[in-house]
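ok trying again, last paste got cut off:
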Amino acid sequence: MPPFATCDRWVAERSKRHGGEFFGDAEMNATVTIDDHVESWMNRKVHSVHRDASVRDVLEIMAKEVIASVPVVGEKGEVVGIVTLGDLARVVLSTEQVLDSDFPHYEDCFWAVDLFQRRLGSDPVLNVMSENVTCVRPDQSMREAALIMIRDRIRHLAVVDERGLVGMLAAIDFVRLIAKV
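nice, full thing came through this time. structure:
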């Protein structure tokens, strides 16, 4: 099997899952630069949850769509938070710390399993989401978006306009951009 066969299959599968456009709108551009607008590279297929969703709802979306962040929206569609894999990792670590410090012999207890299932299942998404969501506009440049991500040490940006959430921009989108330059 050629060394890139696995990558080619991954690109084909990812492209199929995201509407057949692995490189987005910018693929059609004659020239690609870091000054392209965010709207050319953002993912328009946003998978979000309402603020009353459960952590399990977020986990199911992440697993099904193979994504690392899910924005949380309010009644009017406004972005009120975001759940990332990092947020979920913190939940797991904090739960483990509680069990280790308060109950050193939790391995034998059914309630320990219940605690994990509740924190990563039926608990409300509001308990795990990050409330400070960094956003960009579709007309901002990819350079500006990259500088924001570096400054804030984040991997995901919500893209919003006057209508609300219109897309998501992730670190992988910069990899796609570099691959096209």
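cool. The mean pLDDT is 80. The domain at 30-179 is CATH 3.10.580.10 (CBS-domain).
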